[in-house]
């Protein structure tokens, strides 16, 4: 069990959760969200299909609810996400060339404009790399080649100059071909003066698989002159609660050891509401009770 809240120990880094109003009818879930965490990422509510279901028709009902919840509970918000190959509405998937470029810029300026000044950081582009470190083929590369990335960051800086602008991806937590591709891109963007402030490491792990060079890898990115953050941590560990707890502590410690690591966000709160529910990847069980992982997180934060 835990003696007080994660957020009470979070004096060096933010400690966050992906939250969805879908589960707010569960009072245990809602109270854990506000009591334990001081950083909030909308799990789905700021994605393109949620905010712009038809072209030029923006729907902010659920995103507004989360931003309001965050304000009420004194939490900072990570906006997620503006340019991604997934959860793209069909109207946008059918656009090409300059029409898609204009739609991308319009989307960024509308969504970021709505929350201008109220969002700590935005995942401007998400999951743009293949495992071999090359850029993923998508509607974005087809319309703009690699240039969509710089264009998106420039549009984002214009829309909300106070938000930290991140690139976010998975399987980049250790030093490998994919993270090195990203490293080279971030270096190039910085050299070109493209406004990028941070790199988000999703960290969807399974128990026993946290890369031993996580801290080294976070530090090499920080040394490029950007912030780093663990943005979507979950650790599949059904039947492996002790290993899972050790791994959660390791990730927190690795972030704490890197001065530019601003925070750790866990991708959910209670196992049963996780996108990987069958692997019990979260610190609280189906009833909202603290697992060994929660105790380990609290210990690592102290
Ligand atoms: C996931 C959500 O958790 C699910 O509810 C949804 O069905 C699919 O997306 N990488 C990301 C997140 O950047 O947005 C994804 O979230 C998980 C993988």
Proportion of strand residues:
15-25%
CATH superfamily: Glycosidases
Helix and strand composition category: alpha/beta
H/E series, N to C? HEHEHHEHHEHHEHEEHEHEH
Gyration radius, to the nearest Å?
18 Å
Helix content: 40-55%
CATH first level: Alpha Beta
How far apart lie the N and C ends? 15 Å
Task: Estimate the mean pLDDT confidence.
Answer: 97
**Overall tally of structural domains:** 1
- Point out poorly predicted stretches: none
> Which strand order does the major sheet show?
1-2-3-4-5-6-8-9
Q: What is the architecture at the second tier of CATH?
A: Alpha-Beta Barrel
Number of helices: 12
Q: What is the molecular shape?
A: globular
CATH topology name:
TIM Barrel
Number of strands: 9
What hetero molecules are in the model? (3S,4R)-3-hydroxy-2-oxopiperidin-4-yl beta-D-xylopyranoside
Sheet with most strands: 8 strands, parallel, barrel
Summarize the structure.
The protein has twelve helices and nine strands. With 302 residues, it is α/β, with parallel strands linked by helices.
